[in-house]
Amino acid sequence: MDSTIVVASYASIGNELKQLSKVSWVATGYMLTLTSFQPLYGKLSDIFGRKSCLIMAYIIFGLGSLLCGLSRTMDQLIWARALAGIGGGGMSTVVSIILSDIVPLRSRGVWQGVINIVFASGSSVGAPLGGFLADTIGWRWAFLVQFPAVMLAIISVSFALDLPAVEKTDFKIKIKRVDFAGAASLVTCIFFLLFGLDNGGNMSWTDEATVGSLIASAITFFVFGAIEMEWAKEPFAPKRIVLNKSLIASYLVNFFSVASNLSMLFHVSLYLQAVKGLSPSRVGFWLVPGIIGGVTGSLGSGLIMKATGKYYWLTVLEYMLLVGGSITIVSSAGIVINSVIAISIGLVVSGLGNGGGITSSLISLISNGGQKDQAIATAVSYLFRSLGSVVGLSIGSTILQDVLRSVLRQRLTGQDINEIVRRVRESLDYLNELDHATRTIVLGAYEVAIQKTMWFSFSMGICALVASFFINEVPLNRR
Fold this sequence. Notes:
Layout: H1 2-7, H2 10-17, H3 24-48, H4 50-70, H5 74-102, H6 105-135, H7 141-144, H8 146-160, H9 171-176, H10 180-202, H11 208-231, H12 239-242, H13 245-274, H14 280-308, H15 312-332, H16 340-369, H17 374-411, H18 417-424, H19 436-468
Helix pairs in contact: 3-4, 3-5, 3-10, 3-17, 4-5, 4-8, 5-17, 6-14, 6-16, 10-11, 10-17, 13-14, 13-15, 13-16, 13-17, 13-19, 14-16, 15-16, 15-19, 16-17, 17-19
């Protein structure tokens, strides 16, 4: 529910806080910490136990969501969302690890589909609910409403989840096993990357802060690699997993497909609000079919793998659907036709492909990685998914801001160009203050900018399709 309830509220958040150009950082800040901590949870769950890690993740996420709802500035909201991301990383990763612990591999895809039905139920409710709350009592409740839900989850896990007891060891010894250096270097690397991309899109690609951040990101990436490959005693992204030839294709598929899907979803939402003038609640309504397509693809993929014991050609077909859905969306957003219905159909098709592909590629990872390393392999797969989310959303938003600013400067005339460009990038509400001719120019600029980001999302889908051809198939046994 969290992902869609917030997506449907982005424009409203930017409008109220008068910083629409920074609103993507609400998602990016969350994905920054989620990305950095997801792979760490694989090792943490081996050290401290699955149940303890899951409960702690819920607590951190709940606290972050509460602080989001109480935020008064965009910076406060971004920091609170980043805190929630630390918990969000564990919620998804640890649940997947627990499922792999207790379910036979051949049936794993089916159960992933069942989990995704629960996920989609929350997502389907989240999109219209987020829009409704933004239209009525305010976007803050899109965050506050999650706090009691998290408390219920903590109670349920505490009393209903029965797992084998973890070997009792001194807490200090356990803490020493945690790869804090790797986690810190990864957070730093991703932060500099995102800051550089954001600053380049909003300011200048030759700006000292932009260049310095991108260089710092490259340096800290090599530091992270050295820590994980050579120095850490118990790395959360070990060489035998990250550089395993049988796993690399699946990791790349995860990276590119999630980059494509999330970037497309975010900018379709913005397109429907900025260009089509739909309310947040109506936007949420049009996003629901794509979510349903995703869960249908996931469950269908699981059932096919259980029946056949194979996943290679299934995965390739699924990413063909992702590409087909993406080109349908782009074509329907003013390139060939203007149709919200066609965009929604494209979301369904791409959702079918992405949902199924994520499930089948996960089975590929687990089958190639082996039972001993399944927790770490699963956690690293979530790292690549989250990196895809962060990079996809960040680059997409950078393209949007860069193209929007450039097109507005080309098409607008008069002494107020800089002021109009600044305010248009801060709030969609400002469009209502413009005269008809200027408003038409601005809407056209938004359409062009969003179309460019959609082409980027499409290109990421193509990369996912290419990577899927290199997946290594291991027949799934019936145990």
